[in-house]
Each structure stands twice: as structure tokens, then as C-alpha cells.
């Protein structure tokens, strides 16, 4: 088993990665949790596949389990869904000494984490991520979130779990589109990291290759993210690097209204951001075609008509890296050499407009 230790100011916990782990999850959980009530939150796609195996083990280990199945999909990251979950916890008399387990993809993890962080001002939480995206990214680092009609993840908290159990065997039931969506976040981290991690992704040409190399891709992604989170848990500075591709990605994802997965939007956002900073002279890098090739090699989208939408800039106003009239852009000066640069929002708007019209902006990014 690969164990990555996470040390934070308020708490320490482990990320455990191993094939077959979900068959022994209750004994793993019993190492960190005393007997208690557990809300086992999952979704309508994951429940028929894995709920019974996990639930029966927990019951056998002495836990009292309330399974909660939410509708699969991004729309479940909502205040309405949260209200339903709070009511279920209250109806089952959950107390502060009980716990919540997220068994699912990033949607289940973000929602269950938010519920755990707010119900009775916080009850214990464990992540069992089942999608590639959740295994390499969303289960790690403690960001929880709900969406608002205005934009992605606009309600949420930083709330760390007591344990993260990552079993790559879950990925065998994931469909190809979901697998690729998770891979976009791996490409993001590999590009930030550079080195042999980046070399590995440049050799990947298919979903089959992603699955074959999943375990090492997960280990490297989680290790990179955990180091960043330990250095800057609440995203005061370097954690913003993990948001590479998300400034434009989140805007496009919201405008797509459910037709793009988060990872697909990130794929588009990585290329759009790199293109923007290279075209405008903010960096001398020429990485747009390099990153595009790696993403397109497996069939991920890297362009969208939504990049030309009149509503794109309004969406960018909801980016959490905005401060006053400025926004922090995240991009690469070279593979493995990321940069965070504050620019005025008006300058960003001018450059987005010039991309749309083909005219030179009056205001340059430099
Ligand atoms: N908190 C963070 O740091 C963070 C990081 C990245 C993304 N996110 C969030 O994560 C979400 C995206 O996560 P996602 O791509 O996992 O989406 P998701 O949770 O919707 O899962 C994708 C689909 O795969 C299904 N699924 C999950 N595991 C499966 C399995 N093993 N077998 C079969 N089907 C399975 C789900 O039911 C769903 O239909 C977005 O809301 C995004 O904003 C959060
Ligand atoms: O963990 C982080 O920090 C990230 O930014 C990881 C992102 O992949 C993830 O999508 C995150 O939820 C985005 O957060 P937000 O603060 O931009 O809502
Ligand atoms: Zn993301």
C-alpha cells in the first residue's frame, strides 16, 4: 500500500492507495473511527456497483450505517440537495460524534464534505473516491463545494477528512468519458510538476493506457497536490497553482450548462489560458501546441464555441482568485515552471475581446 501523510496545522491524516482496498475498507476505517453512526453518501450510478460491499463491511465492523443515495451529476451540488441531506441526518439523530463517508466521484465528495463540515458545525468525514477525477484531485485537499446558478463552487468550505481510501479497482466500471475527464486534471498536475511525470503523460495516447498506468498516475498526482496543500491549505498563494486551467475552465463549464464535464472544461481552460498569456506576451513560452497535443492524444476537447460567448467575461468575475479589480492568472513559463500573475480584470477583458475579434487589444497583459 502507498501511504501519503498529510500534515496540517489543525490535523494530520493519511491518504492510502491500493488496488482492492475497498474490500477491506471497514478495517481501514476502524483504525481511525470508533464505533458510531455513519452516513454513507453515494450516487445513483455508484450505489448499485459498490454500496452493498462497503455497507455490509461497515455493519459487520460494528458501525450503524445510513446509506444515502443522491442523483448522479453536477446538479446535486446544490443547496436543495444539501437541505435534503441535513434533514436525513437530523431524522436519523446524527450527532457530532458520528461520521460521513463519501463513496463516489467529485460531486459526491464535494457535497458530502460540505455537509460534514456544516452539520452541527462539523462532523467527522472520510473520502472513498470512485472516479479518476476524485482519486487524483477532488478527494484530496479539503475543498468542499456547492454550485450556485451564478457559478461553480460559490458556496463551500475548507474541511479536511480523517482518511482518504483510494482504490484504483473502482476505475474498471468508469466509462471512457469520465476516465478522460479525470485525466485532464492529471495533465494539469503533470504540466505543473514537469520532470518524469510530464514525460509519462506525453507517452499516453488512449484511455486504455490511462487505465493501465492509473496507479502511478494517481500516486504522483496525489503526492504533488498533498505537498501544495500542506504548504498552503487555504489557498493564500501557491495552492492557486492547482487552479491552472480553471479560470476559463469554470466559466466555460457554467456556460455549458451540464453539457461539459468538469475535466473537459478544465482541458479547454488549460489550453485557452496558455494561449491567452502566450498571445498577449505575458510569457515567452510556446506551450499551447504541446499541451493541446497531450490532451487531444486521448480525445479530450481543447476548444469550444463558448470561448467566444459574450457571457464569458461575466463568469470570470466569479473566479475565487479575483481580488478587487485584479485577477491572479495561473499559467506556465515552461513545463514544470508555473507562474501566478496578478493582472487588472479590465486587461483580461480586453485580451479576451481581442481573441474574439482578432483585433489587437488596446491594453496588453504586460
Ligand atoms: N474539491 C476539489 O478539490 C475538486 C477538485 C476537482 C473537481 N472537483 C469537483 O468534482 C466534480 C467532478 O467530479 P467527477 O468527474 O468525479 O464527477 P461525478 O462525481 O459526477 O462522477 C462522474 C460520473 O461517474 C460516475 N461514477 C463515479 N465513480 C464511478 C465508478 N467507479 N464506476 C462507474 N461510475 C462512476 C458518477 O456517478 C458520475 O455519473 C465537479 O463538481 C468538480 O467541481 C472538486
Ligand atoms: O484543490 C484545489 O485547490 C483546486 O483548485 C483543484 C481544482 O481541480 C478543483 O476543481 C477545485 O474545486 C477548484 O476550486 P475553486 O476554488 O476554483 O472553486
Ligand atoms: Zn478541477
TrEMBL record:
- What enzyme class is recorded for this protein? lyase
According to its UniProt record, the EC number is: 4.2.3.4
Specify the 3-dehydroquinate synthase C-terminal domain's residue ranges.
182-322
This entry's comment on the bound cofactor is: Binds 1 divalent metal cation per subunit. Can use either Co(2+) or Zn(2+).
Keywords from UniProt, A to Z, are:
Amino-acid biosynthesis, Aromatic amino acid biosynthesis, Cobalt, Cytoplasm, Lyase, Metal-binding, NAD, Nucleotide-binding, Zinc
**Domain named 3-dehydroquinate synthase N-terminal: which ranges?**
68-179
Write out the catalysed reaction.
7-phospho-2-dehydro-3-deoxy-D-arabino-heptonate = 3-dehydroquinate + phosphate
Cofactors: NAD(+); Co(2+); Zn(2+)
**Binding residue positions for Zn(2+):** 185, 246, 262
The pathway to which it is assigned is: Metabolic intermediate biosynthesis; chorismate biosynthesis; chorismate from D-erythrose 4-phosphate and phosphoenolpyruvate: step 2/7
The record, for Gene3D superfamilies, names: 3.40.50.1970, Dehydroquinate synthase-like - alpha domain
Listed binding positions for NAD(+) are: 106-110, 130-131, 143, 152
Main location (coarse class): cytoplasm
The record ties this protein, via SUPFAM superfamilies, to: Dehydroquinate synthase-like (SSF56796)
Localisation: Cytoplasm
Q: What does this protein do?
A: Catalyzes the conversion of 3-deoxy-D-arabino-heptulosonate 7-phosphate (DAHP) to dehydroquinate (DHQ).
Task: Please state which protein family the record places this protein in.
Answer: Belongs to the sugar phosphate cyclases superfamily. Dehydroquinate synthase family.
Q: Which NCBIfam families match?
A: aroB
Q: What protein am I looking at?
A: 3-dehydroquinate synthase
Q: Upper taxonomic classification of the species?
A: Bacteria, Bacillati, Bacillota, Bacilli, Lactobacillales
Gene of this entry: aroB
Amino acid at each position: 500500500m502507498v501511504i501519503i501523510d498529510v500534515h496540517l496545522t489543525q490535523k494530520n491524516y493519511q491518504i492510502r492507495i491500493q488496488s482492492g482496498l475497498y474490500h477491506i475498507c471497514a478495517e481501514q476505517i476502524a483504525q481511525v473511527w470508533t464505533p458510531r453512526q455513519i452516513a454513507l453518501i453515494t450516487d445513483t450510478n455508484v450505489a448499485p456497483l459498490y454500496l452493498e460491499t462497503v455497507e455490509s463491511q461497515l455493519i459487520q465492523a460494528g458501525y450503524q450505517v445510513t446509506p444515502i443515495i443522491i442523483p448522479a451529476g453536477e446538479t446535486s451540488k446544490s443547496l436543495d440537495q444539501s437541505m435534503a441531506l441535513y434533514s436525513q441526518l437530523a431524522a436519523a439523530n446524527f450527532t457530532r460524534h458520528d461520521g460521513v463517508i463519501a463513496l463516489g466521484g467529485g460531486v459526491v465528495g464535494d457535497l458530502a464534505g460540505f455537509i460534514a463540515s456544516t452539520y452541527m458545525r462539523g462532523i467527522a468525514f472520510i473520502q472513498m473516491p470512485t472516479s479518476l477525477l476524485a482519486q487524483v484531485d477532488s478527494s484530496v485537499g479539503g475543498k468542499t463545494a456547492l454550485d450556485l446558478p451564478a457559478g461553480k463552487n460559490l458556496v463551500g468550505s475548507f474541511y479536511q477528512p480523517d482518511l482518504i481510501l483510494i482504490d484504483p479497482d473502482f476505475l474498471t466500471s468508469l466509462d471512457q468519458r469520465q476516465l478522460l475527464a479525470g485525466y485532464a486534471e492529471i495533465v494539469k498536475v503533470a504540466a505543473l510538476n514537469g520532470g518524469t511525470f510530464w514525460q509519462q503523460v506525453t507517452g499516453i495516447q488512449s484511455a486504455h493506457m490511462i487505465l493501465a498506468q492509473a496507479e502511478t498516475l494517481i500516486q504522483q498526482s496525489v503526492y504533488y497536490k498533498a505537498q501544495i496543500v500542506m504548504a498552503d491549505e487555504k489557498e493564500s498563494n501557491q495552492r492557486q497553482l492547482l487552479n491552472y486551467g480553471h479560470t476559463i475552465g469554470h466559466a466555460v463549464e457554467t456556460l455549458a450548462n451540464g453539457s461539459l464535464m468538469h475535466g473537459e472544461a478544465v482541458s479547454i481552460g488549460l489550453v485557452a489560458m496558455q494561449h491567452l498569456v502566450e498571445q498577449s506576451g505575458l510569457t515567452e513560452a510556446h506551450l499551447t501546441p504541446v499541451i493541446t497535443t497531450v490532451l487531444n492524444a486521448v480525445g479530450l476537447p481543447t476548444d469550444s464555441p463558448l470561448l467566444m460567448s459574450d457571457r464569458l467575461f461575466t463568469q470570470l468575475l466569479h473566479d475565487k482568485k479575483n481580488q478587487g479589480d485584479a485577477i491572479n492568472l495561473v499559467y506556465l513559463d515552461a513545463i514544470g515552471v508555473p507562474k501566478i500573475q496578478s493582472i487588472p480584470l479590465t486587461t483580461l477583458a480586453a485580451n479576451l475581446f481581442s481573441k474574439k475579434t482578432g483585433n489587437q487589444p488596446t491594453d496588453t497583459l504586460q
